[in-house]
Write a structure and sequence with these properties.
216 residues; alpha/beta; 8 helices; 8 strands; binds NADP nicotinamide-adenine-dinucleotide phosphate
Amino acid sequence: MVIGIIGGTGKEGKGLAYRWAKAGHQVIIGSRDYEKAQTVVLEMNDSFTGIRPIQGEQNIDAADHAEVVVVTVPFSAHVPTLESIRDSVQNKIVIDVTVPLVPPKVTHVQIPTSGCAAMEAQQVLGEAVRVVSAFQNVSYEKLLKDEDLQCDVLVCGNDKEAKQIVLGLVSDAHLKGYDAGPLQNSIVSEGLTSVLININKHFGIQNAGIKITGIE
Ligand SMILES: NC(=O)c1ccc[n+]([C@@H]2O[C@H](COP(=O)([O-])OP(=O)(O)OC[C@H]3O[C@@H](n4cnc5c(N)ncnc54)[C@H](OP(=O)(O)O)[C@@H]3O)[C@@H](O)[C@H]2O)c1
């Protein structure tokens, strides 16, 4: 699958890029700055063996060339970034990883006026785009390592087929995903991130996660 990661030069984007390139997907890291994207992919392709070479492009070109587009930008950049790729993602799946954190109070759950970041994405991109939310609770550090990551992935969206495709990508990233219901339920996955950051601070750790229990 051709996966474009918007804001893929950042922490979470690089982690997901590594996991999917290792699984053999064609990954395009997007940036506002073409040179920055090139620098990041050069570093990654040099550092990691056994991955399908990652490509780097401007965000809009990454969105144009991808079948599935992943958005990993800070919440402050969410709406303008989505507006900039809106035409390129029509009729595609967009995975929104954005958490509506408002620094410096990142341990406080914040609720955007549209309900949650994923619903905001749906509003900005329009109904022809299949928005799915996922990965908000997965801390980036371990994504860049081949270590078992003790965090499940809640996948929310209104289109069942799109959610199945995203659940496949979760599995390709060596994570366990669950269909967590419609897009509006993303308010919970997004909010959980602030809870996990609070736990991280309390225990002086970096990657508190969530696990779904009770399933045989
Ligand atoms: N870090 C984590 O462990 C983690 C875990 C789960 C979810 N998330 C969520 O994933 C998203 C990305 O997190 P991150 O830690 O990867 O963020 P980040 O490293 O701070 O930023 C990611 C990328 O966003 C782009 N960006 C930054 N400011 C921008 C602006 N004003 N306008 C447009 N693009 C801008 C930058 O790319 P260019 O400069 O190349 O354009 C940057 O490399 C956030 O919403 C975060 O809450 C993060």
